[in-house]
Amino acid sequence: MRRKTFIVIGAIALVLFGLLYPFETTVVPTWKLRVIDEQGIPYEGLRVDEDWKHYSLELEEGTNGEERWTDQNGVVQFPRRTIRIGIPGRLFRMTVTSLKRYLHGSTGIHAYIMATGPKGIKSLNYEPNKPPPDTLVLPRQEKQNGNQ
User: Fold this and answer.
1) How far, CA to CA in Å, does 118 sit from each of 10, 14, 67?
2) Cα dist. 112→67, 97, 131 in Å?
3) Entry pTM
4) Which residues of 26-36 are buried (b: 16+ CB within 10 A; e: fewer)?
5) What are the residue ranges spanned by the domains of the chain?
6) Residue 35 — very low, low, confident or very high, per pLDDT cuts 50/70/90?
7) 81 near 27, Cβ under 8 Å?
């Protein structure tokens, strides 16, 4: 009888632990990017912004963001972005965000990189379950047409 009680209590404890354990979900993997111009010349010291949000799991308004600067080779790297939430929290958040979807129209993961150059702003979107883009071409000059 004591052994059965011990096994039942152990099983309940394992189930509760499994339900409450904050599992980690990757929103955006590590994103390493090279920023170059149309000639392939890297931009050094250029500000690059990363914005991300998991609309199905995050209840806060707005997006998350960080800015970093390219190195001498035009390379910038952003760390992996994650969320840690247990199963009850995930179910609650997914329910609330599915209702809020009608207000802001977004679900799932949305992330992008953006940089501003001499000729405007360029951005790249991250598609979940695919490697993030690794090159951003940011023009320095106006495109030449045949008459010039």
Assistant:
1) 64, 58, 18
2) 12, 21, 13
3) 0.76
4) ebbbebebbbb
5) 22-137
6) very high
7) yes
